[in-house]
Amino acid sequence: MADQTTYLVDSDVLITAKNLYYAFDLCPGFWKSLLHYHGEGRAFSVDRVRNELLSGRKDEDLFQWVKNDVPDEFFLPVDTDELARVYTEIMMWVQRHPKYSDHAKAKFATGADGWLVACAQVRSATVVTNEQPAPDSRKDVKLPDVCDEFKVPRQNTFAMLRALGAQFDWTAGVE
Q1: Has residue 59 been placed in a domain?
Q2: Residues paired with 46 in a beta bridge
Q3: pLDDT tens, position by position, for the chain (175 residues)?
Q4: End-to-end distance of the chain based on CA atoms, in angstroms?
Q5: Other C-beta atoms within 10 Å of 73: how many?
Q6: Contact predicate 127/154, CB 8 Å
Q7: Which of 18, 49, 101, 113 lies at 20 to 30 Å from 68 by C-alpha?
Q8: Does some domain include residue 160?
Q9: Number of structural domains found in the chain
Q10: What CATH number should be reported for the domain holding residue 61?
């Protein structure tokens, strides 16, 4: 039986792809593949990530892609009682964690990461992030550390693409 993992993509995956290796003008296939796998029910994010991405510059490719090309259903709402319950558990863990500074806790509380982990746990999905774990960090609550604490699977962009079977064939200029 084929792997049917559902993936929830963090904003850093999209921002890093745009800025580095999958820029819109260099690799449009990456962006098309995300929408393709979304159509298959395999790739999503959460509405809080959408909000983060739309708070950027309106003239950026990523802003325009999210606003004009990505269906609203790609960004799952985090409005259920079960999600709120799991999110509350996550926030309580972060707030009680003795190593995190008050600034780190406040920053985490205003971002999408807690909602991403809660949604992944409720939907039995895998979080996709490029962040690296830093369990001894005082200054940042890292998404991989929260995933690990709540036993939510996580992968990086490339592991997700391989698992999905994505391929970006290059044909420009080939005779």
Answers
A1: yes
A2: 76
A3: 356 899 999 999 999 999 999 999 989 999 999 999 999 999 999 999 999 999 978 888 999 999 999 999 999 999 999 999 999 999 999 999 999 999 999 999 999 999 999 999 999 999 999 999 887 888 899 999 999 999 999 999 999 999 999 988 776 665 5
A4: 38
A5: 11
A6: yes
A7: 113
A8: yes
A9: 1
A10: 3.40.50.1010
